[in-house]
Recover the amino acids of this structure.
């Protein structure tokens, strides 16, 4: 993937807003910081970054995809009240993938585990 100043700005903004924003939320942040940009261009760059493993695209949390700068193995927790998304270390269940592979007799390439509940700020 070739260098792009625009992708660098998107990636840095995503790192600074580690709340797993949607493209629309990221667009709003970028528009305030850097002025006009195209939502289609943002989507194209986010999808390119995700396809190259630089960021993670998270589908299934809501209708819109969320984007995560953290590509290391981890899970997610979604607060049912405020809808914020938090990272959960994969260390909470270090043998989970191996046990699932043994039970299924399959090779698991990736997984998306999402916990739902009420965060400590909303309790």
């Amino acid at each position: 993937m070739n260098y792009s100043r625009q992708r660098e700005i998107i990636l840095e903004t995503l790192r600074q807003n580690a709340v797993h924003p949607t493209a629309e939320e990221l667009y709003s942040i970028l528009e305030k910081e850097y002025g006009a940009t195209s939502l289609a261009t943002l989507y194209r760059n986010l999808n390119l970054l995700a396809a190259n493993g630089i960021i993670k695209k998270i589908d299934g949390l809501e209708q819109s995809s969320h984007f995560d700068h953290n590509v290391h193995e981890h899970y997610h927790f979604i607060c049912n009240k405020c809808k914020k998304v938090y990272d959960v270390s994969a260390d909470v269940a270090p043998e989970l993938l191996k046990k699932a592979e043994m039970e299924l007799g399959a090779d698991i390439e990736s997984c998306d585990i999402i916990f739902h509940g009420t965060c400590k700020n909303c309790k």
Remarks:
- The two ends are 44 Å apart (CA to CA).
- Strands lie at 56-58, 66-68, 74-79, 85-89, 114-117.
- The chain has two domains: 5-68, 74-117.
- The mean pLDDT is 90.
